[in-house]
Each structure stands twice: as C-alpha cells, then as structure tokens.
Design goal:
It is a single chain. By secondary structure, the protein is mainly alpha-helical. The chain folds into two domains: 73 residues, Cytochrome Bc1 Complex, Chain D, domain 2; 81 residues, Cytochrome c-like domain (Cytochrome Bc1 Complex, Chain D, domain 2, Orthogonal Bundle). It contains eight helices and two strands, in the order ββαααααααα. A two-stranded antiparallel ribbon has the order 1-2. Strand 1 and strand 2 form a beta hairpin. Helix 4 crosses helix 8. The protein starts with a strand and ends with a helix.
C-alpha cells in the first residue's frame, strides 16, 4: 500500500502529510493548534501548555470540556467550534504521540530540591505516576512549562479551575504560593 505524501505550508509552518497520518484532522486545524502550542507540540509561548506527550485521554477530555463550555480557557474561545468528536480523538492521538522537548537546563538547586521534596511529600506521583508523565485523565507534569504549571496550581488553590479535576483543589489547599513556585520549578525540569 502506498502512502501519498504532500507538503502543506500554512502561515509559514511546514507539515509533511500523508493520507493516513492525521485521520480526520485537517492540516489547517493542526496549524491553528501549532500557532500557540508549537508545531511539535512544545509551546514557546508564556502561559500556553505544551501538548506533546500528554496522555491521549487527558487531551480528549480537556478538548471536549473546552468545546462544550465546561472548562473556560479564554485563548481557546471559539477554536473548538464545529470540531467533531472524531477530530478530537485524532488531535489527541497526534499530540500524545509527539516527543517532549528536553526540560530547561536553568535549574536553581535550592528551588529544585524544595520542589522535589514537596512533590514527594504531597504525593503527586500517586496520580501523575512517580515520573510525573501522567496517565489516562491525569496530565503529564514532567517537562511542562513552569509558568503554566504555576498558573494552574494557583487556579486550583484559589478555586478558579472550573471544569478541572476537583481533587487538585484539596491537594493544594493551604500550600503557600512560594511552595507552589518551587513545585512548578521542579516539575518543569523533571526529565521523564
């Protein structure tokens, strides 16, 4: 069976496509995602999470919750209008298969060590796995953007994470902001 390959250039981003590589997802849809999340799924934009190597089910659930208006993400407003369940599944499959970029090398030893102790003491590895790669509906924390991790943890702490796992609200209840910063610093630099 031969695969027909073509190069798609969309807003300066080059994609090599095959008739089987994206299933029901159009190259134009991937270009829209890539504008913020990166062509390789590794975000370079502050406040925007990397999607590469996230668990497939986590991505599916997140996209459905956003599409249905149950999880408010202002930057995603309207982006999922008209996206079918089949496209959501294909997007999740695509991004979950991408390789995670190496973590930042700018480790602050004291902050990193404090974050490591907090992650262990708070038992983050129970849900997110000991190497923090996530599973099923639990996101990968290892190597995620530090600013995004901190933003998310603060949302959970301040009970502003509407449409997200309510167990996390209890997990970070009463944790100092400085500790959440250390935890974010550590997790962003963990190499799965």
């Amino acid at each position: 069976m031969s695969l027909v390959a073509k190069v798609v250039v969309w807003f300066g981003v080059v994609f090599l496509t095959t008739s089987q590589s994206w299933g029901q997802v159009s190259p134009q849809r991937l270009v829209l995602c890539a504008a913020c999340h990166g062509a390789d799924g590794n975000s370079q934009i502050k406040g925007i999470p990397s999607l590469a190597a996230q668990p497939k089910l986590f991505i599916e659930n997140s996209l459905i919750l956003m599409r249905e208006g149950m999880r408010e993400v202002p930057a995603m407003k309207g982006m999922l209008d008209g996206v079918t369940d089949a496209e959501v599944i294909e997007l999740a499959k695509f991004y979950s298969a991408l390789k995670l970029a190496p973590p930042p090398a700018d480790k602050q030893a004291e902050l990193f060590n404090k974050g490591e102790q907090l992650a262990s003491g708070m038992r983050c590895g129970i849900c997110h796995l000991p190497n923090y790669v996530g599973r099923e509906q639990m996101p990968r924390l290892a190597g995620q953007r530090e600013d995004y991790l901190l933003h998310s943890l603060l949302q959970f702490k301040n009970n502003q994470a509407v449409g997200r796992d309510s167990n996390m609200v209890a997990s970070v209840y009463g944790v100092a902001d400085a500790d959440l910063q250390a935890l974010s610093h550590y997790l962003a630099r963990v190499s799965p």
